[in-house]
Structure formats: C-alpha cells, structure tokens
Specification:
By secondary structure, the protein is α/β, with parallel strands linked by helices. The protein has 26 helices and 15 strands. Strands 7-6-8-9-10-14-15 form a seven-stranded mixed sheet, with helices on both faces. Helix 6 packs antiparallel against helix 7. The longest helix has 18 residues.
Length: about 575
Amino acid sequence: MMISTRGPLATMLLALTLAGCSAPGVIQRTFDEDPDQLLTQAAQQQPAQAAQTRLQAADILARSERRPEALEVAKQIDDSQLKDDNLRQWALLLSELGDSEGDPQAVLRATDASKLVQFSDDQLNLLLLRQGLAFGQLGQAQKSARILLQVQTASGREDINDAIWAQLSTLSERQANALAQPDNAIVTGWLSLAALVRNSNGDIDQLFTQLDDWRVANTDHPANRRMPKQITAMRDLRGKQVTKIAVMLPESGPLAGVADAIEEGIRTRQKISGNSGAKLAFLDTSSASLDQLYQTAKGGGAQVVIGPLDKKDVSQLESRASVPLPTLALNYGEGASNTTEGLFEYGLSAEDEARQAARRGWQDGHRKASVLVPNNDWGQRVGEAFWNEWKALGGEVASAVRYSPSAPATDSTRRAVSEPRPDMLFLLALPDYARQVRPTLQYYNALKLPVYATSHLYEGRPQPNLDRDLDGVQFLDIPWQIPDAAVGGAEALPFYASYQQLRSEDNPGTFRLKAMGVDAYELARRLPQYEAIPQTRMQGATGMLGGNSDGRIYRELPWAVFVNGVPSPILAGGDTDGAASSEQR
C-alpha cells in the first residue's frame, strides 16, 4: 500500500525546519551549490562540520531529483554529530527518502531521532506515519498497525485507511486483540471491523449484511467515511458464493499417498463448516484426461476446481489461454510465470521459503551470505531461489557449498564459513544433517554466525534433547507446526477446530499436507475474491496466503528460533520498542 509522505504538509514541515537553522555554526544552504563539491569538502572537515556539510549535500541532491544518491549520503551521516535543528532536518529528510526509495531500515533509523530532539506534533505524526509504513514493509504487521492507529487517533487522517487495513487484515484474533484500547473509539471500531471480516469465512453476502450493522454502530468512524478499498471491492461479489467444488486428485499412482492426506484435510474442513460450507465432488485424475474431468465438473454444477496435483498436469494448464472453471492447482507448473486466465497455483514450495529467508536476512541487516544446500536437484532449485532473491536485494554471496547428505557436515560447514567470511548462513537440510551444523560452527569459532533455515530441519514435534544442537537457528514453518512461536498458542491458530481433529505427531510430513488440504478448501471458496482482488490475503494453516497478478498464491510463514531445543518466538508480539516517541504530546 503506497501512502504519499511527500505531500504539501511534508514539504512545508521540512521547509520550516530548515528555516529554523540559525544557530551559530549551522550551515546556510543555497540550492545552486554543487553537492559533489560539498561532499569533497566534508571529507576534509572535522566530524561535526562534516555531518552538517553532508546533510546540506543530501538535501540538494534530493531537491535535484538525485534521490538514490541523496539517500546514500543521508545514511552515511553520523547523526550523533548533529544537534537540534540539524538533527530534526536529518530525521525528516532520511525518513522521507527511505520511504520514497523503499528502504524501511533507513526510515526506522531516522525515526529513532524522535527520542533525542523535540518535534512539533505535525512533524512527529509524519515520522510516526513513515515508521508505521516501514514496519509494514518489514512484515511486522502488529507494530505497523499500532503506530498507524496512533497516527489516525492523533490526526484524524482518512487517507491512511487502506494502509491500516493492509496490516490489520493479516493479524490473528489474538494479535489484533492485543491492540485493544477500550476508550479509543477509532481503535475499537477498526478491531470490530477486522473481526467481522475475519469471521465471515469468505461468505460475502453475510459479510455485507453484518457490515451494514457495523456502519450503524460506527457512524463517525474514519473507515465508515472512507471504507478500505479491499472491502468495497468485494461488493461486486455478492451472490457469487461458492457452493460446489470439484476436487481433482489421483486415486492411484505415485502421488496417491500425498493426495490422500490433502483429501483428508479438505474433507475435515468441509465437515466442520457444516451447512455454510460447499459441497464436494471428487474426481480421479488417474482415470481420465483433464478435459474429461472439467466436462464432468461442469456437468455436476461445480463452480470452482481444486487440483490437479501432478506438476505435469499443472504445466499443461499453464500452456492454455484459460481454464473451463476457476481452478486452484495444488502445485506449481514448470513455467516462469502463470498467465492462464482463471488458473491459480498453490503449494508448499521450498523455493518460496528460501526467498523469504533471503528477505528476512536482508531485513535483519546482513549483506554477505553463505549458502549450504545438498548436492541434488532439490538443493539446486532451492539454492538458486535463495541466490536469485539475495542478489536482487543487493546482497553478496560469500560462498555456495553443496554437500553430500550422507557425509558428515564438518567439512562443508567449514568451507561455508571460510574466507571471505559471511555475516549469515542460509541452510537447507533435513534434521539429522542440520543438527551437526551448529556444533561445527562452534568448533570453528563461528557460533555467533546467524543461521537461517527452511522448515525442513524441524521434524514437527518437540524433541528438546535432540534439537538442542539447533539452538540459535532461525527457521520458518507453517503456523500449525509451530503454534507457540507463530501465534502464541494452538488455540489462536487459524481453523483451530480442524487442527484439533487432524493433529498427529505420528507423521509431521503428512500433517503438513493435511494443513494444505484445509487451506485449499478455504482458498477455493474464496477464488472469486482472488480473481476480483488479486491482493486478497487469508490467514491459513500453512501461512499467510496472498494472491498476486501472476496467478500464484504466495505463503508468508512465521519465524521461530530454537531455544533449549524447542521452537520459540523471535519477537515478543506487539511490542513497539523503537517506535517514534509520543512522550512529547
């Protein structure tokens, strides 16, 4: 969600800040000065004067539309050398540049200045707005929502409604309730709206009936005056509720076992939905062609299709201009993208996890990664996914090591942390191999090296004695596998009733597939919504599931870290440490 923080108010605030720069020794700018010459001068000046000169150069660069250069100069300024008006100017400039140039870490660094110098209420609200948007970019939805709600409470701004909703709509019930302020009508109204949409279970008619009641109860609420676009866009979907789904899965062949687990998840979720759920018709992909199956599905009155599961079948659908019925495939095709009209692809992709690990490492401030993956096709695919995402972010790869899964981890781990030394390690490994990596890092005096891993190193059940060797490793997994770390406990999980029925520690791998079946059923019920609003997001058993214009459903998974051999949360949910200070009010 893009919110302009460069409008007339922001420009006026910055101009007023600059106009106040009249203390002894504070620089006076002239727009026609050469910023490159100023930077040359700064290199020869004492630290305090150099910081002021670089600030002047950054401001001129920004006004000359050399904004990427301006951002880099502003980031390099030693803000500890700036005082009062100069510090205010730097914070406003860096936060504005970080916001417009897509560098949320720069925004957060700038907003820390609110603790060190006095800002006007308007300036502080502007910093808070940029900080809230930055936390949202970094995936910290609860922090983002808390700050944006603070801004709206103080300013009454309605143009940030879509930004507020983008964060609130991703929170679990427990995370949202942690934001409650009983005496704040704005916050209370937003939370009741979020609960209304969250509990509608994709029933658009029910949603808008309840939405009318919400409007009556919240006549003066900012969201009533300017409803978030994602909600209003659903109005056109009234009367299009999915009531019958055809499920195309193989009943024989190499994928039959996988299909059985997914089917159990689908059937369980449908049964729990009761009369409000959709009817199911199961079709055997091992006994008929896709065209025959679609014909049968249409003849039976199906509105959407779940399946197929086989990658070859999905690739075949990718080659078509369109599909006969809106379809949620349970795999990803071979194509670089999916352009088939009506086709959506969803699966438990290790490549998606690798790309998310790259983004997480980058957001945490790392810039030089080593990659440790098995020397097989799986390792190559996942390793390339991490590599490509990491390089696209601007990261450097110190080394890429492909290991033999049957050999000890000692030599491969040593090579991964040898010169040039990385500042993080990406690990793709099954549990037995992964448990050898941290002890090896300790042997080579690299125990403090951050390790980011995919879900594959966790067997899916607590084994503290075995997993103590994973202590300190950060990994991501589906919420149903790490409920304490993901949402603060199993009772707060999405589709908890289905979780209770399906949960089994006998085969964690199968459990993930059952969770996939639950989400497939819920996604299928919402396919008309994903077609109309590609940015639709759903809190699922397998992660936060979001659509995109390329017809693929992307999973955003929660993170955990091993502590005493048990997956534990990385962040204490909802704390707004580092938020721009509001104590000045």
